[in-house]
Structure formats: C-alpha cells, structure tokens
Amino acid sequence: MSRDQLQSAGRSEASAEAPFLELLARGASADAYEQPVLLARADGLPLDRVAALEHAKVLALRVRSEMEGRRRREAELSALFETAHDLAGLRDLDAVLQAIVQRARSLLSTDVAYLSLNDPAKGDTYMRVTEGSVAARFQQLRLGMGEGLGGLVAQTARPYVTDDYFQDGRFQHTSTIDAGVRDEGLVAILGVPLMLGPHVIGVLFAADRRARVFEREQIALLGSFAALAAAAIDTANLLTETREALGDLERANEIIRDRSGVIERASDVHDRLAELVLRGGGVHDVAAAVSQVLDSTVEFTEAGAALGDALEVSRAEGHAVRRGDDWVAAVAAGGELLGALVLHGHPRLDPVDQRTLERAAMVTSLLLLARRSAADAEQRVRGELLDDLLDARDRDPRLLRERAARLDADLDATHVVLAARLDAAAADADQEAAARRRLWSAASHLAATRRGLAAARDGGTVLLLPLRPGDRATDLARRMAGDLGTAVHEAVTVGASAPVENLAARPDSVADAYAEGQRCLDALRLLGRAGDGAAAEDFGFLGLLLAGSRDISGFVERTIGKVVTYDERRGTDLLCTLDAYFACGMSPARTKDELHVHVNTVAQRLDRVGRLLGPDWRSPARALEIQLALRLHRLSSAARH
Questions:
Q1: Is pLDDT at 279 greater than 60 in this prediction?
Q2: What is the dihedral of CA 371, 374, 375, 380, to 10 degrees?
Q3: Does an H or E element contain 420, and which?
C-alpha cells in the first residue's frame, strides 16, 4: 500500500471515529451512538464508509462501557477514602459503622446490608448495625458459632456466599435464624469476616431479596469495607485503653494507601487498553500493549495450544497461573475457553503485574465475545424480521420498514424469495443439525452483504434478496446455489420465486413467494438437478403450474414472442403457418395444401421460424411448449377482441 493510500485510510478511520468521540466527550446515552450510522445510510454514503462507522460505533460503545466501569471503580475508591477519612476523625463508633454499612449497600446495590459482632462471653455473634432491614426479629438475631451463613463465616474466618439461602445445604439451619431470614425475605447473602489479625470479631453482610450471583470484585469490595469496619472497631476500643490504637489505625491507613496504589495502576492499564480498543486494535494489539507495560513478551494463543494443566487451572480459578518461567492467563467468556495470554520468561511477577495480565485477558475475551455477539445478534435480528414477514401478515408497514432500515434492507425494492436446502444425506441427527447450521450461517452472511434477510425454515434456509436491475430470478438462484455450496462444501439446491414488490404493504406476498420457491426447489430435485438453482420461468409450461400466479402472457412471450413480434413488424403470417404445420402433423406437404401455397413457401417460412426460435424448436419438448403457447396466444387474442 502506498503512502497516499495509508494516509487516506487513516483519514477515513479518523473521520469515522470523530462523531463517536464527540458522543463520548459529552457523555451521550447508548442510543445516541446509532445516529451517525443511520445518517450515513440515509445520505447514501459508500458501504465501506458505513462499515467504518459501524466498526467505530462498536468500539465507542465498548469504550463507553469501560469508562462507566472506571467511574464505578472511582466511586468505590472514593467511598474507601471517605471511610478512611471517617476513621481518621473517629469520634462515634456507631456512626462510622453505620456509614460503612450504608456505603457497602449502595456500592453493591443490595436490598440490605448489616454487620454483626462476636460476643466472646456468650460464644455467639449478634446484630450491631443494619441498613435496609424492615423485620424487627431479624434485627435482633443472635447466631451461634457455625449456625447459618454468618455463624459459619465467624467460625471459619472465610467469606461465604449463597444465591439461594434456603436451598443451600452447606449451612446449619436453625428455626430461629431461618425465621428471621424469612421475615426479612432474604434469598442471596454474602458474608465476609471482620478480622483483627488472626481473630474474627464479626461479619459484614450484603443481601438481596431475590436470587443473585455476587461477582469476585464485589466480594473483594465488601472485604475492603470489612477491613475498614474492623479497623474502626479496634480503634474505638483501644482509644479508651492504650496508645496501640494509633498504630492499628496507621496500619489500616497503610492498607488503604496500598490498595489505592494498586487501583490507580490498574486504572492506568485499563485506560491504555481502552485507548487501544478505540483505535480499532485487536487481540494481538492487546498482547503487544501488555508486553510494553510488563516489559516482557506476551502472546495470544488459541484454546487448543499445548499449555498443559496451567490453562485449565487459570480458567477454573480466574487468575494467571505460573508455568515454569511463564505465566498463563485464560481468555474465557460464558464458560467457553477462547484462548490464553502467555507471559514469557518472567518467573517472578508481583501481584500488581499479575492483575494487569489478568485484566488484559479479560479485555481480550470481551473483544472476542463482542465481535462474535455482534455477528450473531445481527443474524438473529435479520432472521426474526424475515420470520415476521413470512408468518405475521398483519404487521404495521411503517414498523417493518423501520426494522428493515436498521438492517440496511429496503422493503420497497423488488425482491426474490429463495428456498435453499442441502442435498447430501447426513450420517446422523447431530451431523444433519450441524450442516443446517452451516447453511444458515452462510446464508445469513450472504444476505447481510447483499442487503437482504435470511432465516432457517423447514429443514433448510429461506433468503429474501433484492433483485438488481437487469438481473433475473433464475440468475440469482443459480448464483446462490453456487455461493452457498462453496461456503458449506456441499451441494445446495435453490428454488426462486418470481420477483415481488412492495413487501412492507403486502407481507402476505412473501409467504406466497416462499411457497413458489419451495415448489421450484422440489421440481429441481425431482428432475435430478440437485445442486442447481432455478425459477418457475425455467420450467417452460411446467412453470405455469409451479408459479404462484399464472403468468400466461410471460409464458407466451418467452416461447413464441419473437415470432409474434416478427409478424407484427413485417406483416407476415408465421403464426398461421406454425398453427397449420402442427395441425397437419408437422408435414410440409400437407401444410402447403392447407394454406394453398407452394411447398417452398412453407419451407421458407419454417426456416425463418427456426432462426427466430432456435434450431431445436421441432424437438418434442419444445414443440409441445410452442403448441401450448400458440393456443394460449390465440385465446388471449380472441378475448381482447
């Protein structure tokens, strides 16, 4: 590529990103990001320009999501600092604990948050502070060590979480505790221990009145608040007894400062990765960026790479795992292993750098998943619109046009409906289902590139494609049979309807056209033309039976139209000669007697017919079609007169 081409490509990319950068700058809503693409399509900009805008939109939305995540992390950091500030000016322990519980409930967006403290004298733990609680019995609960989720946390000094408390058999259920939890209506509960050194002094909880899965980051955040709450309790107790409380507070503040440094560094790494994604980077660009940050070589490898057990351990634990002198961070999404980021030649890795590698793996998985999800979503939406056109005949035309416009499809254009089906027999049901999925995927891709629609239907695939000027339904069917067969590496038979128009106002025409396409497909297979494509017009007089509407004039025109035009322009009587020729059993001698002309005149006229209709016009199949066309032409002429 020349320097001018590179500069032109750079300007095109930059111009595509400009409107989305402006939306990012003013903090626009997610819906606003559709506007530049819609305007570009409305203005009729080139497809590559529209594609560039689409790509920039996806990246901008991803950056917007990253920015929202950063703001959320900043809110968490701010809450930690505010709590630390409360600790620094500690005057009222209850006020500090109440603030911690309130902030924990707000940041984790839970219905209830509460804190319990251990009572060494009685050997149990009791409620100290609640936020969002409405049940008096719950607020007065006391839990024995090992009883319920809170008692288990207090006893084991480990965090516990359940998404459905009453269905969870890990905890020792008692009637008193269960009654209190039931009064409060709690379902999902997260509890983390309040630790002073090796000792548990209480438990900090966050709970919801519906089933919920708490993420690892949320557990870590609640753990941070628990550390602050423990520090506050310890400080308040020791302030009245000894100067050691100052040392404990100082250590708590040091923990906060250390955590702040980790968060800031992680935030810087996220900013760098977000900038890379905004510029249109891919997974290998992410690996290159992390290589610079960690001053080591980082590579992205596919899921099938030989990484031993380290990859599975990383996937299961969600952390980077050391493998010899390397570190492996699994790239996974929704339980699916997509690959791994491998850091080479760095046996000693501090926690911050390890977290950087893990965050890079997360960004990589989001990139891969977003691209796949975008493609799947578009295919699904195109299929849903075509299903509605086929099944729901009372749809609002305006809404149909709007949905089609969002997919870059024009329902006011002339379209052809094509029925496509695989011809090879599958060995079993699983292979057959996989083959059908491949056919649907290939058809969806072809439809998207041609501003059409595709959907899986009746064991095959149906396509709705616009008909280009000068093109015929037959040509389109044959091209699709070839393109789909190449894509799935199997023979694909395609039957096409006659062109249909005004689909939004007449959605019933789509279903009728699809039925016609299926009849043509079945006819192809019966005639031994599997792997081919055709429309009703290709089957001669049989096409009159296959077509959804009886296009008699079209059949006559295709069959003897040249002879009709010749007679009209030159004043000859070739049609009459053809009628007499067939009526006389295709005998020139009998024909000349019927017409009262010389036999040479009959021969000359028949030669002219042959030049107009082709040398095979006397073959049995062509002769049958010509006789039928002559009779239909005679009937239609009589009807006009």
A1: yes
A2: 160
A3: strand 415-422
Q: CB atoms < 10 A from the CB of 45, how many?
A: 14
- Token code pair at residue 161: 């979480």
CA distance 341 to 307: 11
Q: Parallel, antiparallel, or unpaired for β 492-496 and 415-422?
A: antiparallel
What's the token pair of residue 306? 């030989």
Return the exposure string of 585-613: e unless at least 16 CB atoms fall within 10 Å of the residue's CB, then b.
Answer: eeeeeebbebbebeeeebeebbebbeebb
Q: What does the mean pLDDT of the chain come to?
A: 77
Integer Cα distance of 138 and 180 in angstroms: 4
Global confidence as pTM: 0.37
Please report the pLDDT score of residue 543 as a whole number.
47
Residue 210, both tokens: 């519906």
Kindly state the DSSP code that residue 537 receives in the 8-state scheme. G
141 DSSP assignment: -
Q: Which amino acid is at 318?
A: G
Q: Which amino acid is at 520?
A: C
> Which residues, other chains included, contact 486 with Cβ-Cβ below 8 Å and sequence gap of 6+?
none
| Phi (first) and psi of residue 85, to 5 degrees | -65, -40
8-state DSSP, 168: -
Question: Do the strands 326-333 and 160-162 form a parallel or antiparallel pair, or are they unpaired?
Answer: unpaired
DSSP for 32-65, please give it: GGGHHHHHHHHTT--HHHHHHHHHHHHHHHHHHH
pLDDT digits (tens, 9 = 90+) for 554-588: 666 777 778 888 888 888 888 888 888 878 878 88
Q: What is the pLDDT of residues 243-274, one digit of tens each?
A: 554 566 577 677 666 666 556 655 666 676 76
3-state secondary structure of 201: strand
C-alpha dihedral, 368 to 371 to 375 to 381, nearest 10°: 110
Does residue 429 sit in helix, strand or coil?
A: helix
Look-up of token digits 């025109």: 557
State how far the Cα of 575 lies from the Cα of 25, in Å rounded to an integer.
Answer: 76
Alpha helices by DSSP H, 450-534: 473-488, 508-526
Q: Say if residue 101's pLDDT is above 60.
A: yes
Q: What are phi and psi of 160, to 5 degrees?
A: -135, 150
CA distance readout (Å), 592 to 561, 595, 627 = 24, 5, 19
3-class SS of residue 322: strand
* Cβ atoms within 10 Å, residue 193: 25
**224 within 8 A of 175, measured Cβ to Cβ:** no
